[in-house]
Structure formats: C-alpha cells, structure tokens
Structure prediction request, 882 residues.
Amino acid sequence: MSNVNALVKNVGLPRIIIAMFLLLMFCAGPFFGIPTDTSVDDVLVRFGMNGVLVLSMIPMIQSGCGLNFGVPVGVVAGALGAVLSLELNLTGPLGILVAIIFGLFFGAVFGFGYGLILNRVKGDEMIIATYVGFSMTYFMCMMWISLPFQNPSSLTGYGGEGLRVTISVQDYWGGQLSELLKIPISSHLVIPTGMLLFFALMCFLMWGFFKTKVGTAITAVGSNPEFARASGISVDKMRLISVVVSTMVAAVGIIVYEQSFGFIQLYDAPRAFAFPSVAAILLGGASINKANITNVIVGTILFQGMLTLTPAVINSAIQIDASEMVRIIVSNGMIVYALTRKAR
Amino acid sequence: MAEDNIMLKLTGVGKKFDDVAVLKDVNFTLEKGQIMGLVGENGAGKSTLMRIIFGMNVIAETGGYDGEVFFDGNKAAFTSPQDALKAGIGMVHQEFSLIPGFTTTENILLNMEKTKPNVISKVFGKTLETLDMPKMRERAAHAFQTLGVNLSTDELVSEMPVGHKQFIEIAREIDREHVKMLVLDEPTAVLTESEAEILLAAMRKIAEMGISIIFISHRLAEITSVCDKIVVLRDGVVVVENSTAGVSVHQIADWMVGRESSADAVAAKRHEEKGPSGSDFVFEVKNLWVDMPGETVRDVSFKVRRGEIFGIGGLAGHGKLGVPNGIMGLSPAGGIVSFDGKEVSLNSPISALNGGLAFVSEDRRGVGLLLDEPIDWNICFNAMQVQGKFLKKVLGVVPIRDEKAMSACARQYIEELSIKCTGEKQLVKQLSGGNQQKICLAKAFALSPSFLIVAEPTRGIDVGAKQLVLEALRRYNRENGTTILMISSELEELRQTCDRIAIICEGKIAGVRAPETNAVDFGLLMSGEIRDDVEETA
Prediction:
C-alpha cells in the first residue's frame, strides 16, 4: 500500500487519472470501429504538432513570470514569419528555414516588448499576459489586412487585398518536417520521424540552455528573486531574456504546427493556442514556478492524446459530439487546479 | 496589598513555540492606577507576554499558554483582542493604525461615534443615524485635555507630525468607556524629547484617574522617572520585580543584560587563542545612511581592522540591520564605503560582490536561500554567477554548469560544517534552520571573500547549532585571516565572538567597546543613555 501511495505522490493524481482514461480510450477504440493504429497515429501527430508550443512555456515558468498565457504573441510572430516566407515564394526546406528565421526574429522583437510589459506588472503576470495575447492577436488582425502582401495564394479571393483566414502551405513547405524520414508502419500509422526529431532537438536545446550560466540565473530568479538580487543578478534582465526565449520558441512551435497541419491560420486563430498549451504543461506536472522537459513530454502526450481520442471514441459510441465539452472541462479544469495550488 | 486593588495578576505564565520556551513561570502584579515599566533585551519575551495579555490569536494558534492571568479580579481568558478591548484593556502599538484621510476627531471616535436619530434611521435602524459632530468634537477635545496636549479636533491625521499621531492613538484608547488598563509599546520612540515629556506627564494624569499602565520602553531614564514599579524580563524569566524608588538607570541595564561572568570568560579566552589583529584599517564606512524599512540608518561611520571580527549590536529597529543591507546594495543607501583602499559603490549588489565582499543575510529564507533548489546549487550559485566558478565550456564557447565540481564543493562543505542532510542534492527547504544557516555560510565561504558580513547568524536556530555556527565563523576568521563584520541582536554572542563591538542606537553609532567591557556599559549604550560624542578612535 505504501508503494502505491508513493507512486501516486511521485506521478501525481491528475496524471494517473488522465493516463488511465487514455488507456481506456485506446482499448475501447476498436469496439467502436476505430483501429488502434489510427489512434496511435493521431496521438503521435498531435504530439509532434504541439510539443514545441508547450516547450515554449518553460523559460517563463522558470523565471517566475508564470504560465505563458501570452503564447499568441509568439504565435503571431511565427505566422508573420510563415507568410513572409510565402511572400518570397520559397519552397521546400529553404522555405521552412526562412519562415523559422523570420519567426525567430519577430519573436525576439515582440518578446522584448512583451517582456518589458511583464516587468512592470510583477505579481500579476498571468492576467496581464492573457490580455497582451489578446491585444497582439487583434492588432495583427489589422496588420494582416493592411500590410502590402502580394502573393496571390495568400490573399483573399475577393478584392485581392488582405490575407486569407487560412492559407495553404501545401505547395510551399507543407509537411517538410512531418514527411522527413517518415516510417510507414501500416496504412493508418505513419511515424512523423522528422517532426519528432525536431521536437527532440528543441528539447535538447532548451535543456542545454538551462545548464548555462544564464539559464541557472533565470532559474534562481524564478525560485527566489531576492536571492538572485543579492547575488548581483539583474532580475529584470533575466525575466526579459526568459520572455524573449519563450516567445521565440513559440514562434518556431507554430511553424512546426503549420507545416504538419498544412495551413497558416490567421486572425482569431492564435488565441486558441494559449489555454491548451498551458493546460498541457500543467497536466505534465509543472507548477506555476517549476517546469522541466519531462513535464512537457508527458503533458503533451496526455493532453493531446485525450483531445484526439476522446471525441473519436465518444462520438462513435454515443453519437453525440462531446469532444468540445471534454476539451474545455479538462483544459480549464487543469488551469484552475494549478492556480489554486499556487505554492507561495 | 488588598486583593481588590489589583488590576492585573499573572501567575506562572509560560509559553512555548515549537518546544522553545520563550516565557517561563512569569509572575507579577499590577495595582490600579499604577504605572509599570517593562524592560528587557530583544527576544526577552516582552512582545509574547503582551500578546498573551491581549488575547492575540497567534497565542491560541500555537497551543495557548501555561499559567493564569487575572484581570480586574476575574480570570482572563481572552480569545481575541476584541474580548480584551471589551474587558477594558487598551493597547497602543508602535505602528500607527490611524486612517490618514480622517480628522483627529473621526479617528479617535472611530466605531464609537456619537449619533442622533433621523427619519431614515427610525425605519432602518441605528446604523444609519446621523453623526453628532459637535458632541464628537467635545469628546475628542476632552481626551486631548486629559492628555495635556493642544491639538485641533478638525485636523487631518495625514497632515500631522508623527509625534502628534502618537497622541491621537493614546487619546483613542483613553476615550473608550471603561478602559481600565493601557499597554503602551515604545510610545516615545517616535517622539521628540519635549513631546515625550508631555506624554510622560499625561501618563501620570491617566494613572491618577485609576487606569493602570504597562509601559514598554528602551529609554531607561523614562522608566525611572515615570514608573511606580519595574519588571525586568531576561530570557523569558522575570529577573526583577521591584519598586522604581531609588533604582538607577545603571542598575536596570545591569538587570537587563546580566550573565556577564560567563561571557567575560569566553571573551578573554578567545583573545588568548587569537592574538592581536592587524593594525591597519581595511574597511571604512563614512556617514552611511540606509533607507531600510524598520531599520533606518541615519549617520554611521566606523573602521574595521584587517583580520578582526567587528561586531555591531543594538536593539531591534535601531538600524543595525540597515548597515549590512546598505553596504551590500540591497537597500537604498548613501555615504562612503571603502574596502582595501577602493571605494565600494552602493546600491549595486554586484559591485559589492565583485569588490570581494560576501554577505550572509539575516533573512535566511527570504534572501539567503533558494529553498526549492538542492544544496549544491545554493552553495555554488553566487560563486558561479559572480566569479565564474563551477562552469565549463562546451564546444569551447558556451559556458555550462560543471555539476561534478558543484557536487564536490557542496560535499566538502557538508563535511566541514557537519551539515545534516541526505546528500548534496537534497532540497534546502527540507533542512532544519541551523543546517540552512550553515548552507548560507558555505555559500559565502565559496566566494572566498576577503571581507565577510554576517547578519544575525544565529537567529531562529537552537542552542547547539548556534555554537557550531559561531565556531565556524571564528575558525574561518582564524584560518583564512578573513575580516568579518558580524551583526547580531544578542550581545552575549557578540562578546563571545568579536574583537570590538559597536553599538547602534537610533540609527547612529553610540560607541565602540572591547568585548570585555562591562555588560552594563553595553546596556546603557543600547538604550542611548551614553553616547560617545567623539568620532571613533579606538
């Protein structure tokens, strides 16, 4: 019994419940006409698509800026990079590389401004971040319309001015990572090796970043800002760096998402990434001021697994679309759970 | 002494916090209309005693107290300050609890307003009655008259000098109906001398009205001049309960510090084993002011010799903690601080650290430690960030943490300082206070500082750990010749450890003495009864 208790304590009750639920869905799938290999494929793809976005939570959590509800700031930076790459008519590996470079650049610029704002609202970062994300999304809505883009495949069909709501990247660099080194296992299951390897690379870089002197200082700032200050560290500077890094990683994350999905989603869409990413890392066991790579991997698998499997299985089973309901309950429930357990 | 003339009687009162006894078997009586002076060093148990009498929640939450308190003939078991107020105990705290935007009258009569009925209140009840301002002003004026101060009843509290606010606080307490006893906690600390005199005169008047007063003050002259009797607390025990007639300030200081024999012996022994320090001054502070909340430093100058342990003592709130926090750039400060001939720029922690200074903060959990991180991180972090130790280059350029070196260093200190833990990867928050303090020392030692500042190194740790921590400091000083500046509220500890001791009173250095100096002298310096006018020479 004590072993069981220790296990529950180590792994965490929320993770055990969700993992059991996920397992149940896998087992139940075949009975409702959903082959297991399809389920596995869905989960792997969604995991690869969202992994980097969830990873972008780490720097800000570690520096004490809290959960990055301002993910949309990075998402619009990535989207801007993506449409600029299209604008240059670049295709293939070069296309996605340029998209990422532009995304990193705008991520750094936007992240800098975002970080300056967060340094002025210490203690209320998360609520302000939410609004910065909203504002940035709608500010960019104006930009999508008014910036002088030329590529016909990005422009609206009618009038020819302003960008479309969804732009297909299929002819440019769609699937550049997902298709790379892909391993077909069965007709329904293809392992997106390239995308998973890219995620692994990003994880490695993040892990390495937190091994450096700056990464160590950022962790200390998040752990105890007064301690860091007494050690001669500029708390504001470390927080700023963490916000910039988070925003840049989120920009890369959305490009990975877009190449797999096949579309760039503009206007309202960036808003939709904040809550799922936050919920995923929390589900993975992160707290408001501590997170690691394991939290990201476990959380993304559990959360995305639940999102993809539940609707499929439940819809076939009871013929009611309960997917949205489950998604909302779990993602918001997870966030509320984490906020009420705020340690200090 | 007739029983019915007794206002307050304590029999066998004791209090423990987590097995640490802060009060032991406290007995005293206070008669009606008497003024009792309560004195004692920091940590002697004064505040705890007042909390018990006033029924503060914190006492009940930590397991209540032993013994009995009798108030006005009845056994008092107040469960909240409201009960105590109702029974007739008034308390004036050091910090003001006044509403700045209200007038003096409104503040004094807050929640005790005089009202008259109007149409609405006849329907909806008494809470909606109109304020009867003329009557309220009358009450306030009466209270001021009692105190013997000349204050306007319509002035806004926000526009008054600090000294006057103190009178408002007291006026509020005595205006309460059936007030029988007042507790004044350091009421004169913020007053000028002439204001203090008015207050003392007012206290006499109040006492003549039959109200008893417990007067807490560190100004011993005030105690002897105004009080009828004096109770001295030392280490949670009443050492003296006496009439003040014929008692000198000197005598009280002696009672407060006491235990000189043991400290004297240690101080002498320490000198023998150490030998004289260097003669040149390595660290110099000139006209330092520090704006640290609750520990303001006004004008402090001192010099520290190479290789010595220089102590700074004084009562809480007088600025001794402001000194290190100002020097290390943690609180806004001004003045000149120089080390080894080079000026240390203030308001910048990094320049102090780069100058070879290291600091062990008095706020162990708030500033000193990363509670959520392992031991090796805590010990090595400063050295890594400030001096670039414990880093190795990857691909020749990117500096990353050298975990092996960190572990090795942490293990070395765990052994040297006998830190009790499961290993260098244990989280610091799981350690006991004493072991956490040793981590703080190790953190400073890892910087190999040429000048070490230690603030309150033994605060909140048990007796055994105290000796280990002090011994570690002495050894470090002896073996490495590091100059140490040690700040502590415990005089005995300073006398055991330091070569010279400066006492700070009201934000200024009152005097510098050798540790062998009579404890009474230190007591007088602390309470501001003696102040060396000459610039320190020593």
